[in-house]
Each structure stands twice: as structure tokens, then as C-alpha cells.
Amino acid sequence: MKADTNASGVAVAATADPRDTTRADIRLVRSLLIGIFLFMATAALYFGRAFFMPVMLAFLLTLTLTPIVRFLRKRGIPEVVSATLLVLLSTFIFASAGYLLSGPVIDLMNNTSSIGQQLTERLAQFKRPLAKVMDLSHQLEALTETSQEPGVQKVAVAPSGILSTAASNLLEAGTSITIVFVLSLFLLASGTLFYEKIIQSFASLSQKKRALRVVYDVEREISHYLLTVAVINAGLGTVIGLGLWALGLPNPLVWGAAAALLNFLPYVGALMTIMLVAVIALISFDTISYALLAPGFVLLCDIVEGQFVTPMVVGRRLEINAVAIFIAIAFWSWLWGFVGALMAVPLLVVVKVFCDHFEGLSHVGNFLAQHASVIDEETAEEAGNASA
């Protein structure tokens, strides 16, 4: 509302500007359309995960291997040759790791009940204060069972179709892995085809140069980050595996591989690795004091990697704040399970790098960053002083 004055000086209320109303309606419609689009995109990713998940993994693998392809191309090796060799090498590494780890992992899965029983026996001395509560619960359970009618029999329904379900899951996993490696091969071998298509979609030369510069910067930063983090995680898994082998922990190769894989989940992955190693160490070693050396060593390695190695090699600019990491892990694990959780942080870094290169999305990139910009810190300080 605007207030005008007439000739006698009396204030007269003016009608609202229709252009402001139109702008407000446009903003409302735009917000509704964005919300509908995000809802439909989430539903499509959830119900189409059998298609989108291997495609997303293929793009992440392509971005990880792109710096190596570019390096070999500068040495005179064509993209087709280097891409084929890299994909074959990646396939061999994954197949070899799966073959070497399959036996120990299957043994661990088959012995989960005995592992739980042994862990309970080892921790019995810590459960003495709760012994009375446990005895009471067992008595209540016995009373519940005896209160049933004598003619009623318990019926245990055995799960049906276990073999068919396992075969179906194995076939689905094999299909997804094949799609990942084949699509990665084509993406790596395509070279600059996608960049040429991007350039052709712009009219002026200045727009073409700007688009090409943004695309190259985004690809270079994401590729460098993914390759560096993959190498760091592989090194971390190797160090942890060798250290646990030196301590005498059974199956150190499994725990080294688990540490490397779970380290793609910041905070959560390290905690899971420490807990798993602690459980196996408690049932494997005679004394609890010696058993605590294994999880302590894993904790030390995670601290060195998280606080020194990764910030020094990757840099602080691509660090994501912890709240955004936990939200992303929760969202993608709900959407695609464990594989989605592993892809959560790399995808979050991809989103942050894209947002940092576009002015309209810079506020999103600043929200995802671990450290606020100087302007935002000054604004927050002024707001705090004003509220005080």
C-alpha cells in the first residue's frame, strides 16, 4: 500500500501496485513448480533405482578416471586405448577383491551367531550390574510361555524361495556392475564429444567460451577430488590392514577393505569400522587390554587421515559441513540403500562445485561449505549485535 497526500495535506491510501501482486504470484507459482519437480524427481529416483543407480555409479567412476585418461592423452595414448585399459584394470581389481574377500565374508556371515555368543561371554563381567534385570526379563518370558493354552503349538514358518531370491539378487547385481563398467568405457572413450555438444548449444562466441570454461573447471575439480579421495581411502585401507595383520587379528584383508570402502562415509564409516574391529578383537584375543589395541589403531589412522592427510591433499575448499553430510547420507541410504550412502558425499561435492560456479546457486554452495564466507560471517556478526 502507498500513502499519497491531497491538496489539503490529508493522507490518502493508494491502491496496491498490480505489478507487485503479479510478481508475488509468479514467485509462488515458481516455488510450487520447484517443489513438484523435486518431489517427482525423488519418486523417479526411488522407483527407477535399478536404472539410475548404475548410471550414477558409471558417471562417478568416469569422473574418477578422467584425470588419468587426460594425462595419458597428453603422452600420446588415445582415449579409446587408455579408457579400455583403465576399465579392464578396474574390472580386474574389483573381481579380484570380490574373489579374495568372498570366502572370509561368507565365513563371518555364517558365524554371526557364534560371534554374538562369544562376545556376550567376553562382556559378561560388564553385565553383572544388569544381571537382576536380565533375570527378571527371563522370568517374565517364561511366565508368558507357560500361560499359553496347553493345546496350542508354536508354528515356525520357514522362509520360502531363498535360493530364487538370492539368484535374482545376484543376477541384478551382475547386470548393474556390467552397466557401470560398459557405460564408463563409452564415456571415457568419447573424449571431448560432450564438450562439443555443449559448445554447439550456444550462439555467441563469448557464451561458448564461458560455458566451456565452467564445464572444464567443474570436471577438473570433481575428478581431482574423487581420484584423490579414492587413492587416500585405498592407502588408509592398506595401512589398517597391515596394522591389524601385525596385531594378529583374523582376516585383516577384510577389515582393510572395509575401512577403505566405509571411509567414503565421513564420521559414520569410521565409527562402523572401529565397532566391527572391536567386536572381532574382543572375541579373538585373550585379554581385553590387548584387544583394545586393534580399534585404537583404527581410530588413530582415521584421525590422522581425517585431520591431516585429506585436508592437506584435497584442500579446505571442498569440505562439506557435517549437517549436510548426515542429511545426504540419510537421504541416499533411504533412497538406494548402502550403495546410495556410499555415493552421498561424492554427489554432494558434485552439487557444491556446480553451485560455486553459478552466481544464482552460490548461496546453496555456501550452505554446503564447512566454513562460511567472509561476507556471511560479517553479516552474522552484525545480526548478532543487533539482536543483543
Describe the overall structure.
- The structure is a single chain.
- This protein is mainly α and 388 residues long.
- The chain has 3 domains: 123 residues, no CATH class; 107 residues, no CATH class; 69 residues, no CATH class.
- Helix content is 78%, strand content 2%.
- The protein has 15 helices and 2 strands.
- A two-stranded antiparallel ribbon has the order 1-2.
- A hairpin with a 5-residue loop joins strand 1 and strand 2.
- Helix 4 packs across helix 10.
- About 4% of the residues have low confidence.
Structural features:
15 helices, mainly alpha, two-stranded antiparallel sheet, 78% helix, 388 residues
Structure summarized in a few sentences:
The protein is an all-alpha fold. It has 15 helices and two strands.
SSE sequence, one letter per element: EEHHHHHHHHHHHHHHH
Q: In total, how many domains does the architecture comprise?
A: 3
Computed Rg: 29 Å
Overall 3D shape: globular
What is the count of helical runs? 15
Distance between the termini: 32 Å
Mean pLDDT: 79
Overall strand count? 2
Strand content: under 5%
In this structure, how is the largest beta sheet organized? 2 strands, antiparallel
Q: Structural class, judged by helices and strands?
A: mainly alpha
Low-confidence stretches: 154-160, 374-380
User: Could you estimate the helical fraction of the residues in percent?
Assistant: over 70%
Widest β-sheet, arrangement of strands = 1-2
